Amino acid sequence: MNKRRWLVALGLSAAAQAWAGAAGAAATAAAGDAVPAAGAFADLHDFTGTDGAMPYTGLTLGSDGVLRGTTQGTTSLPGSVYSITTGGRIKVLHTFDGGPEGWYPLGEVVEGPDGAWYGTTDAGGASGAGTVFRLDRRGNLSVLHTFTPEDGVDGNAPSTRLLLASDGNFYGTTWNGGTNDAGTVFRISPTGQYAVMHAFGGAGEGSNPNAPLIQAGDGRLYGTTSWESRFGAGTVFSITLDGVATVLHTFDGSDGFYAAGLIQARDGNFYGTTDGGRGLPGTAYRMAADGTVTVLHSFPWSTQPEGYAPVGSLLQAANGWFYGVTQRGGGSGFGTVFRMKPNGDVTVLHTFTDGNTGACTLVQARDGMLYGTSWGGANNVGYVYRLPAR
Questions:
Q1: Does residue 23 have a pLDDT over 70?
Q2: Using CA atoms, how far apart are residues 345 and 339, in angstroms rounded to an integer?
Q3: Are 68 and 83 in contact (CB under 8 A)?
Q4: 37 secondary structure, DSSP code
Q5: Cβ 103 vs Cβ 96: under 8 Å
Q6: What are phi and psi of 210, to 5 degrees?
């Protein structure tokens, strides 16, 4: 079983057990309840199972100032899309049917130019290999594309959020499938016209992209692969909107394994994390436009307060500092929220005590606070939290 599928199976197993133990339990914080004053970590909402379970990724800030997110669900709950205000008022926008609509959304939803929300499911759909969907303002879901099983040339198992690019189309990746069964980069229009932009070939090019794409200032798309490079550690690549792909960097272990998503910071450089592997606990790095990588920080193993195995993309907040989460360590073993200065100095802002962070990427809302999601919580099926960007 590959790395991502192992994490998926682990999440489903833990979620199913937690749901069985928490069935019928009331949430400790009802939708709309007051939350602790700004300045400290706050649990905004504990999921109960009926309003979603096991949020795997983070949140998206809408043009209306409201946050949206997805829950991956459990073996008996197929996942949901929800909105939540910065005051903690939650609303379930859609619950997946576990069939033709798909199930198990692993990426955040993205707001389209029409005000609808677009996303992917990792599984389900007519062929069981995932879907691309559109959710309108009334909660009506339309399937824009159904992926084909296993070695389908259009890819399968999309596991990250879509990117709305400057040409008005959405771009994304699939973990598997394509002509080499090593994953793809695809384009899909808001009305569902679908095309494979690039099929990964493994070997020196890398395979199994498992992080969202970004569009940089030069108009190109940038992303990472997690597997099958020269050293088995993944790559950073760019791709034009015409589908011309270029490998910019190959990880060799000394600079990390299994890269998460990239961001382009205000200084024009790219920043990202790797979550470790082969005896390494993960790194944070800076990459220049020519692909030169500088390791800014190496995370420590085990129970050190800092945590290890950073996941998700970094966030550059309004203050210019970077924020992220680790999935392991931190004393409790469940990971941390950390701040990193551009020189690589890391400060722990919060230590999780009751469930790891999935692949959460933090988001900064209009109030300046950071928002994210985690597993665990009062009902053991996940919660939404906030904390100051200090």
A1: no
A2: 8
A3: yes
A4: P
A5: yes
A6: -135, 25
Cα dihedral across residues 332, 333, 334, 339: positive or negative: positive
- Specify whether the CB–CB gap between 299 and 308 falls below 8 A: yes
pTM of the model: 0.90
pLDDT digits (tens, 9 = 90+) for 197-210: 999 987 788 899 98
pLDDT in tens, 337-379: 999 999 999 999 999 988 878 789 999 999 999 999 999 999 9
**E-only strand ranges, 240-307:** 245-250, 259-264, 270-274, 283-287, 293-298
| Cα gap 39→370, rounded to integer Å | 11
Residue 177's contacts (CB-CB under 8 Å, 6 or more residues apart) are: 129, 147, 148, 150, 151, 152, 153, 154, 155, 156, 157, 183, 184
- Return the CA Rg of the chain: 19
End-to-end CA, the chain: 40
- Mind giving me the DSSP string for 300-348? PPTT-TT-EEEEEEEEE-TTS-EEEEEEEBTTTBB-EEEEE-TT--EEE
Name which of 233, 322, 317 is nearest 282 in CA terms: 233
Q: Two tokens at 61?
A: 């800030």
Both structure tokens of 125: 């759909």
